[in-house]
Design brief:
78 residues
């Protein structure tokens, strides 16, 4: 069995990911000193005032997710 992985910037909604077994790695969203994890908070709780930016998951975060998934899957496709 192969694990499918994407980051939260993808066009899939969480319900589709759950239905198709796609694992999401969250982006980190920044605005000034405020930081939130994309799609962990409700989509309605965006960073107030706009003007923020998203940071892709780090190499270490990918590694952690991949290592966990490789404990239960034959491979990972990202």
């Amino acid at each position: 069995m192969i694990a499918l992985v994407t980051e939260t910037l993808c066009c899939l909604n969480p319900a589709d990911c759950a239905a198709y077994g796609v694992h999401m790695i969250p982006l980190t969203c920044h605005r000034g000193e405020q930081i939130c994890i994309d799609r962990i908070l409700s989509r309605e709780e965006s960073i107030p005032g706009g003007g923020g930016f998203s940071v892709p998951p780090s190499e270490e975060l990918y590694r952690q997710h991949f290592e966990e998934l490789l404990g239960t899957h034959d491979g990972v496709f990202c």
